[in-house]
Write a structure and sequence with these properties.
Belongs to the CcmD/CycX/HelD family. It is found in: Cell inner membrane. It is a single-pass membrane protein. Its main location: membrane. This protein is an all-alpha fold. It is 72% helix and 0% strand. The protein is built from one helix and no strands. It has one helix spanning 6-44. It starts with 5 loop residues before the first helix and ends in a 10-residue tail after the last helix.
Length: 54
């Protein structure tokens, strides 16, 4: 890649890589926050007792 547009092409690839890496980090962080929130809600949920079943 030594043509007149090499700098533009390399910069485009670098920006695309940075955007994709950012999206992956954001998705993983959101997954962890959502999982933690769901675990808190599940802990607050009243449990049914097995004794009441026939």
């Amino acid at each position: 890649m030594t043509g007149p547009h090499a700098g533009f092409i390399i910069a485009s690839y670098a920006i695309a890589f940075a955007v994709l890496a950012g999206l992956i980090v954001w998705t993983v962080a959101d997954h962890r926050l959502t999982k933690r929130a769901l675990e808190k809600l599940d802990a607050r949920r009243p449990r049914r007792s097995e004794a009441g079943r026939p």
